[in-house]
């Protein structure tokens, strides 16, 4: 005999919040791997190869975005349909992170003389939060 239970709006809202929290945790963990890739590649390109911080940031962030898209599609949002469209949206959201970081470089590195490595590190949590909201609502909706 199968038991049928009614879902109340309160239970549904609680399940939705719980799912959002699980997604945020996974997104942050996966984002952590992308951050490591992004930051290490940035350091290599900027400090060792001598690339300008803007170009180094664009390249390193692109690698982090690709890593994060694959892992988020598989594990966070569990969406495997329309991958090209989703990747283009995910990359567009990633471009907002590049733009935000570049604005912070302009303000803090160029404007105030703060080390680009510190600005890059400090920008990461802000960019992660913005991108989670945008990716959840647009890229993987």
TrEMBL record:
Kindly give the Pfam families that the UniProt entry links to this protein: GtrA_DPMS_TM
Query: Which residue ranges does the record assign to the GtrA/DPMS transmembrane domain?
Result: 26-140
Question: Mostly located where?
Answer: membrane
Sorted alphabetically, which keywords does the UniProt record give?
A: Membrane, Transmembrane, Transmembrane helix
Identify its membrane topology class. Answer: Multi-pass membrane protein
Where are the bilayer-spanning segments? 27-49, 55-75, 87-108
Tell me where in or outside the cell this protein is found.
Membrane
Q: Which family does it belong to?
A: Belongs to the GtrA family.
Q: What is this protein called?
A: Flippase GtrA
Question: Per the UniProt entry, what species is this protein from, by scientific name?
Answer: Streptomyces pseudovenezuelae
């Amino acid at each position: 005999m199968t038991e049928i239970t009614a879902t109340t709006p309160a239970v549904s809202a609680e399940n939705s919040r719980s799912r959002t929290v699980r997604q945020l945790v996974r997104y942050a963990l996966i984002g952590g791997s992308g951050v490591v890739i992004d930051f290490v590649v940035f350091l290599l390109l900027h400090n060792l190869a001598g690339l300008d911080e803007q170009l180094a940031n664009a390249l390193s962030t692109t690698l982090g975005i690709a890593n994060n898209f694959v892992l988020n599609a598989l594990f966070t949002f569990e969406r495997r349909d329309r991958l090209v469209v989703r990747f283009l949206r995910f990359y567009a959201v990633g471009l907002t992170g590049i733009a935000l970081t570049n604005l912070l470089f302009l303000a803090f590195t160029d404007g105030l003389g703060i080390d680009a490595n510190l600005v890059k590190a400090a920008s990461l949590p802000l960019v992660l939060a913005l991108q989670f909201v945008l990716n959840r609502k647009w890229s993987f909706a």
